[in-house]
Amino acid sequence: GDPGFKDISSKIFVLSAILIADEEESKKLDSMIDNYKKELGWDLKHEFKFNKTRKSQKIELLRRSSYFRYDIYVVYSEKEKREKLKDVVFYNMSVEKILKNIPIRNATVYIDGKYDRKYKAQLKSYIRKKLNSKKDRKIKNFIPTESTDNNLIQLADIIAGSINRSFHIEKTDSSDYVKIIKNKIIEIKSLD
After folding, report:
1. Pairing mode, if any, of strands 12-19 and 71-78?
2. Looking at CB atoms within 10 Å, which of 41, 91, 160, 185 has the fewest?
3. What's the pLDDT tens digit per position in 35-79?
4. Do residues 77 and 4 lie in contact, with contact meaning Cβ atoms separated by under 8 Å?
5. The overall pTM is greater than 0.70
6. Strands, E, within 54-174: which ranges?
7. Quick check: helix, strand or coil at residue 92?
8. Cα–Cα distance between 19 and 36 in angstroms, integer?
């Protein structure tokens, strides 16, 4: 999602998470995305990004991914209600909220790591403190990774963009993406 508050930033912040319970399923889904990139004639480092990928390619990626076993969790917020928070605080709170709602235990969490090293360390520490107790350890590993290196983060971006687009009913494609993945969506929760 886009947690920024600049004039060009989106008005609604959407953060999506994909829960894949089976490591083999995760590998198969990753491989499918690599194969689709090859079909498109793309380099494997080429990214699926909601705002930079053609509609037909997004729809096909979502269609192909829908045959795999994974669940989608989403949190969203209207940014104008959060303007007093700094981008970092807002993002940390959003990550905490989405991870609290996912039924995980000793999980490895991959997160888009386009932020600097200091921020990544702060986020990792914040999430571990908020989600890991002495009795219950939700997060085993928290791994910030570049989206260019992780197809599943790219899929999460397409899903977040799809959910965001569904809030914009004035757009002709507002429901085109979500209808493909609606049976995978477990929760869409407002931060407000």
Report:
1. antiparallel
2. 41
3. 999 999 999 999 999 999 999 999 999 999 999 999 999 999 887
4. no
5. yes
6. 71-78, 107-112, 139-145
7. helix
8. 21
